[in-house]
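User: Can you help me understand a structure? I only have the sequence.
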Amino acid sequence: MKIFIGSDHAAFDEKAAVIKHLEKYEVLDLGTHSKESCHYPEYAKAVSEAVQKEKSLGILLCGSGIGVSMAANKYKGIRAARVLTKEDARLCKEHNNANVLCLAARMTELEDIKEIIDVWLNTSFEGGRHQMRIDLFDDLGC
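Assistant: Let's start by predicting it. Here is the structure, written out as tokens:
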């Protein structure tokens, strides 16, 4: 499985740890590549476009997880979920088929981030009534 990952400077260290944690997957790091101040929408764009093109999964990290999720959700076909708990991770995949996981580096301990990712990756979309709702996403906005 291919996973695209990106972060801003606030989550640079956590991103590096997540990449190491996901060593059994093909992880493509789309930046940032330093702790120098940067703009999270650039990395949300890169990950979202890669997920769109490859029909794969993405992980975005920033200080709060809010900015990257707002930016990623601007892209058609992206269902980005800001997740703070393992229960959020399970539900966003089961019910919403989230294809981009957005994490809060300043609000979530690293071990919790790893567990959240594991739950998200190991949870399946339930389909059924949830698929009908996902289909409605395509009719929203531009």
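Now, to help you interpret it: The chain has six helices and five strands. The chain has one domain: 2-137. Let me know which part you'd like to focus on.
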